[in-house]
Amino acid sequence: MPQRLRGDNINFPQGAGGGISMALMVLGVLLVAGGLAAAFSGAGGVSLKHGIAAYLVGAFTVLAICIGATFFVMVNYLVNSGWTSTIRRQVENIMAFLPYAWLLLLPALAIEIAKGGVLFTWMNKENATDYLLNKKATYFFFPLHVGEFPAFFVVRTLFYGLFWWFITSSLIRLSNEQDRTGDRWLTAKAVRLCSWGLPVFALTIAFSGFDYLMSPDFKFFSTMWGVYFFAGAVFSAIATITLVINVLLRKGKLKGCVSEEHFHDLGKFQFAFTVFWAYIGFSQYFLIYYANIPEETAFYNHRNAFGWDKLGILLMVGHFIAPFFILLSRHVKKHFNLMIPISLWCIAMQVADMFWILRPMAYTPTPLKDANGVLIAVQEATSVGPGLAGGYLDALLIFGMFAIFAGYLIRKVASGPLVAVNDPRIHEAVGHKNYV
Fold first, then answer.
1. What pLDDT, on the 0 to 100 scale, is given for residue 388?
2. I need a labelling partner for 96 at 20 to 30 A (CA). Which of 70, 304, 397, 403 fits?
3. Residue 424 lies inside a defined structural domain of this protein
4. Which residue segment(s) compose the domain that 275 sits in?
5. With 0-12 CB in 10 A as exposed, 13-18 as middle and 19+ as buried, what is 166?
6. Does residue 390 belong to any structural domain of this protein?
7. What is the crossing angle of helices 48-78 and 151-181, to 10°?
8. What values do phi and psi take at 362, rounded to 5?
9. Secondary structure (3-state) at 366
10. Mean pLDDT for each 10-residue chunk of the chain (436 residues)?
């Protein structure tokens, strides 16, 4: 054990990664700033609505990864998991970005409020007389009225950020303190924190998904939406954890601390949430299709037209069918090199999922009517937008968000021990063996 936990195996030299970390964060800020500037100016035929949608695709993908990592830490504390002790520190490093990911949402919220509703059209005073919006007025505007300041929406957003900061900073503080003192009771404190924190955290996951992913189409509603977002969040978080551990092993770190047995279990988690995401996604679609309520079906009708159906097919194949069959193999899950492209693909599929949810709202179709004013089927309506030429804006904002996240993560990983050295279950993690 001492050999495995020697300094050069679980630590980087002081200042390591500082240059590339700063370069990535600066690059990310420049890309995001450039993307927003292009959105405001309309360069290349894009719109501000497009810019906010693309901005939220990047921000919410990163947020989802951090949410999934936080869930992973909390649930493993609650079940007294031992095998995760040697990888938990890297999950905590991902989790640590959650409050900053929340901060990335604020510019989009500020623009929406200042402009009176761009992507979030329920803020637009032109919709103040909409029947369904008035039925949801309390959820968005309480104690004010439709078309006024979205007070309750902002209060919820602030609560998400404060709670996420509290729960992540508390868990990281307890973990770091245990590194210094070796106090075993700090693990019990973390378990107590998670025992009440996880239910509250689950509510923030669901309602943040309702607020920022579902509300742009304020007439749409689905009680399964929060679970759908959660499934994708954990799916992408497991992929990111696997990728980070793989990179560290390639750098010659964590030898004897992380083995193919840990990758096997991470692969099983990846497989489980591949199936869970597909189950929730199909169930939601099937129930909405079967009920045939216009306010619900419009969401899918729009995404089954104007080329978005191809992205839907990609999600079915890439987010479920392909990883399902690939991850069935024990050999694949245990193979370090094979899990790298699989993890990158899974992260890309989470981006595609967020893109499929948000980007169709950027250029909603203008319905065509016949001579009598009767609405023609949505598939025959005309759609407005720059087409593929506007893809540069999506690339700028999505890659910019990931560059900021990657830069932070590199600095965080290099700043301290790569494992929780005094975790009371670390011996169990080092000797971990799979029997299924």
1. 64
2. 397
3. yes
4. 7-367+401-430
5. middle
6. no
7. 40
8. -70, -35
9. strand
10. 70 87 97 96 90 97 98 97 94 98 97 95 92 93 92 98 98 96 94 98 98 94 95 98 96 91 96 98 94 88 88 97 96 93 98 96 66 51 60 96 98 93 90 80
Residue 308's contacts (CB-CB under 8 Å, 6 or more residues apart) are 302, 356, 360
The residue behind tokens 């998991």 is 81
Nearest CA among 358, 356, 354 for reference residue 51: 358
Long-range contacts of 189-197 (CB under 8 A, 24+ apart): 190/77, 191/77, 191/78, 191/80, 193/167, 194/74, 194/75, 194/77, 194/78, 195/78, 197/74, 197/167
User: At 201, which amino acid appears?
Assistant: F
Q: Which residues contact 412 (CB under 8 A, 6 or more apart)?
A: 93, 96, 97
Residue 329 and residue 310 in contact, taking contact as beta carbons nearer than 8 Å:
no
Q: What is the pLDDT of residue 369?
A: 53
- Residue 279: the pLDDT is 98
Instruction: For tokens 């830069």, name the residue.
Output: 407
Identity of the amino acid at 179? D
382 strand-pairing partners: 366
DSSP label at 374? P
The pLDDT assigned to 17 comes to 84
Give long-range contacts, CB 8 A cutoff, 24+ apart: 414-417.
Answer: 414/12, 414/16, 414/17, 414/18, 414/21, 416/11, 416/89, 416/176, 416/179, 417/10, 417/11, 417/89, 417/179
Considering its fold, how many domains does the chain have in total? 1
- Give the DSSP letter of residue 368: -
Residue 41's Cα: distance from chain center in Å? 28
CA distance 258 to 418: 11
In a domain, 375, yes or no: no
